[in-house]
Amino acid sequence: NYFKIDYSYIRSTRELSSKESKYLMDHLTHQFLINLDIELFYSIMSNFAPRYEKRNFGGDAFICDLKILRNIGDFDLSLTVTNLFNKSYFEYDGLPLPGRQISALFCYVLQ
């Protein structure tokens, strides 16, 4: 099992001129991340990763990702759900980021 917490803060003292786009300064000001890996059962691992993001010009979001992994011999199997709760949020004002995305991976590991 594994647990990790990360936090980042960016403060900009730069001011925009009238000829610059506000997108230049619309960066994340606060980002709080948690990463939790847990072995469930039958060697199935899970990774739960919630995060809070606050942008410079006001937008914020709480997003959760989930990944389930299993190794069977030379094969790796995983199921990943990004934006688990299908939260609507924006990278920049008017530019929406994708909703829930589900992907599956089946890999053969060469020895």
Strand content is over 45%
Contiguous uncertain segments of 5+ residues: none
Total E-strand runs: 8
Largest sheet, in brief, is: 6 strands, antiparallel
Q: What is the terminal separation in angstroms?
A: 26 Å
Shape: elongated
What order do the helices and strands follow?
Answer: EEEEEEEE
Please give the share of residues in helix.
Answer: under 10%
Sheet with most strands: strand arrangement: 1-2-3-4-5-8
Whole-number average pLDDT? 85
Kindly provide the radius of gyration, computed on alpha-carbon positions and rounded to a whole number of angstroms.
18 Å
Number of continuous helical runs? 0
Alpha-beta content class: mainly beta
What does this structure look like?
There is one protein chain. With 111 residues, this protein is mainly β. It is built from no helices and eight strands. The mean pLDDT is 85. The protein has strands at 2-9, 28-39, 44-55, 60-72, 75-82, 90-92, 95-96, 101-108. It is elongated, with a radius of gyration of 18 Å. Strand 3 and strand 4 form a beta hairpin. It has a six-stranded antiparallel beta sheet with strand order 1-2-3-4-5-8, with no helix packed on it. Strands 6-7 form a two-stranded antiparallel ribbon. It is 0% helix and 59% strand. The two termini are 26 Å apart.
Write the layout of secondary structure elements.
Blueprint: E1 2-9, E2 28-39, E3 44-55, E4 60-72, E5 75-82, E6 90-92, E7 95-96, E8 101-108
Antiparallel strand pairs: 1-2, 2-3, 3-4, 4-5, 5-8, 6-7
In short:
0% of the residues lie in helices and 59% in strands.
